[in-house]
Amino acid sequence: MESEAAPRCRDCHYWHPYDLLPFMGECSNPTSIRFKSVVFQDNIAGNCFTERSLESLDFAWCMTCRRTIPVSELPLHPGHELFVDAARLPVEDLYEMTFAGD
User: Fold this and answer.
1) Pairwise CA distance, residues 25 & 17, whole Å
2) Hey, how many other C-beta atoms are within 10 angstroms of the C-beta on 61?
3) Which member of 29, 41, 52, 59 lies 3.0 to 4.6 Å from 87 by CB, making a disulfide possible if both were Cys?
4) CA dist 94 → 7, 75, 98 (Å)
């Protein structure tokens, strides 16, 4: 029987929820067997679990407000569900996720 106290993927630094299905997300931990896979939030994380840290971020995803916020706005979101890996700079490297008319 699995322990309820075991760390869940939702609480891992490398888990990021999908916008439309927030109970599902993607693992971005390159050392995990679930790397770039769809993972339910309540999966037991296993030995690849990493405590979430909001240090050294440019942006974070605020699940409560359902939007990407710059790190300068973190104090405006106390008690909100915040996730890392929402966006990275330079944005030009994320061209497949941006809208452009050229």
Assistant:
1) 4
2) 19
3) 59
4) 31, 27, 7
